[in-house]
Design brief:
The chain is α+β, with helices and mostly antiparallel strands. The protein has helices at about 5-25, 30-40, 50-60, 75-95, 100-115, 120-130, 145-160, 190-205, 210-240, 255-270, 290-295, 295-305, 430-440, 460-475, and strands at about 65, 165-170, 170-175, 180, 280-285, 340-350, 350-360, 385-390, 400-405, 410-420, 425, 445-455. The protein folds into three domains: about 5-140 and about 285-305, no CATH class; about 140-270, no CATH class; about 320-475, no CATH class.
Amino acid sequence: MDISRIFTRLRVALPLFIAILAVAFLYSSSISMLWKKWVLWDQDLAHALPTLALMFVLLAQRHFITTPPTAKTPWYWLQLTALGGCSLLWYLFESLSISLPAYLLILIIMCLFISTSLSTKTMLATLPYIGLIVFTIPIWSELTNVLVSASSTMVGYAVKLSNLTALLDGNSIFLPYGTIHIADGCSGLRYFTIALLMGYTLALINQYPPARALATIAIAILLGLIANWLRIYLLVLIGYYTEMQSSLMQDHESFGWIIFACILIPSIYFSPVSKQLAASIEIPQRPSLLPFLPLMLGPLLLHFNAASIGAQQPLQLTHLDAYKSPIQNAIGAHLLANIDKRESRLITINQQQLQVDLFTQIPKEKKEEIVPYIGRIIDGSLWSIEQRQRLSIESGQNFDAEIYKQIGGQTRILIAKQYIVGGYHTDKYINAKLLQLLAKATGESYFGLLIVQANCATDCAQEMKTLTPALEKISELQK
């Protein structure tokens, strides 16, 4: 194809690319936050920038044709109304610093804007390519715990079948010469997302029908998971037979990608090639400019929004000073919560010694969320969770109670935690994220994480009973 034909084709497609970039520009408040995550190149978004480049390259290779403008139907006006509603909803989440729903709304807004400014046919034809943007949104890290559990199960099963002298306890594998812990970095999240992306891209390039596309993506996911399980299993074998002296036991990043490539590249090579030609994407001769009005609603409101920060932090543990324990024994486990401000008390209530920790935070910037990312608060290489249940106290508040067992030992600890968002309390992190809406609306932009720990004599049953009335007194943080 000569250069003139390429430029002619891109000239016809120019309104589509302008529509995509217009949404990115107007909603740059969210895009700038995403950019900061993309350039970190961490494990769940390391592929974000290449994925965006891939989207534009694949779109540029499609054939575009010019069509006459279509009449505005009731469906058009319904989409225009939905575009304005989504823009206002984006403003609500963005002004309240609730990032993930705002990111997902931008995708919906982009589709509605293309559909109303160009045509519904144009949007449907480009939707599979715009779907690549999903891989650039930070939703994949939520799968980490599930993938770690799957890796521990599958690798543990393989180790048992190998008749190695090994002890499996939680996510740790004890060998005669050392311990291999399957941590978050061993979840295989990178292999999972890259394999999923490769399967999705393969289906796009070959224009597979829906059934074959879904099968391709499912096979790609399975191969990505198998690559990670095989990597961990081989590391166990290498550690076992080299007495943990191999350099791979400390630096196995490249080793994992080599295994991944050895599995995925042949699979791509032997995947069926479709001879089906992609249908042309229709671009109206005169794009509609009317959708710019509802598109700009949210960004304009955000621009003139003068939301202030600087809420006061009323949470404290001074009411527990009367219960301070004269015996300073070590209670519970070391906490990994990545929140700077921390207040602690070692107390005795009803003859039960408890370690109470309160982590607090107030947003320093307008764009900062009230509820920070918490992650794991207990080191998974030292403790494995055995049981979880909800504890309800008389005031109506709930605590998430967990029993942890020391890996390689019989020591157990009981941990109860609660999230405080403004004047609201919850035992679930996801609920705390949603409560940000109410906290921001009432001007109470502060956060607290209350953690209570107790040592267990045996199975923590007795400690669980005595902890419930103690939590009633501990939870009086705002009285």
